[in-house]
């Protein structure tokens, strides 16, 4: 396998794209990006709450990664000199 760019951040890049798209959530988590939790939003910040997403296709799926999580696992495996790396 050719050497991968170890400076790539596929999951972080996908999360940033998700947050910057200003998506309206109709799924879990129930805090809905902090809309009804002013104290929590003030404490950890609006961006942290907006990054809390679950099961969005662009963010990949941990139980069967084929996108950015899979790419990140491959980067980790190569960085550690391993055949495989799994994020569980």
From TrEMBL:
Domain of life of the native organism: Bacteria
Chain ranges passing through the membrane: none
Protein name in the entry: Arginine decarboxylase
UniProt keyword Magnesium present: no
Single GO term (MF): catalytic activity
Keywords (A to Z) from UniProt: Pyridoxal phosphate
Residue ranges constituting the Orn/Lys/Arg decarboxylases family 1 pyridoxal-P attachment site domain according to the UniProt record: 9-87
Cofactor: pyridoxal 5'-phosphate
Gene3D superfamilies: Type I PLP-dependent aspartate aminotransferase-like (Major domain)
PANTHER family to which the protein is assigned, alphabetical: ARGININE DECARBOXYLASE (PTHR43277:SF4)
């Amino acid at each position: 396998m050719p050497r991968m760019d170890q400076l790539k951040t596929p999951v972080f890049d996908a999360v940033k794209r998700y947050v910057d798209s200003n998506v309206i959530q109709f799924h879990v988590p129930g805090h809905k990006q902090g809309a009804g939790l002013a104290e929590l939003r003030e404490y950890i910040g609006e961006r942290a709450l907006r990054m809390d997403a679950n099961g969005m296709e662009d963010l990949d799926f941990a139980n069967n990664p084929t996108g950015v999580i899979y790419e990140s696992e491959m980067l980790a495996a190569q960085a550690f000199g391993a055949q495989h790396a799994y994020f569980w």
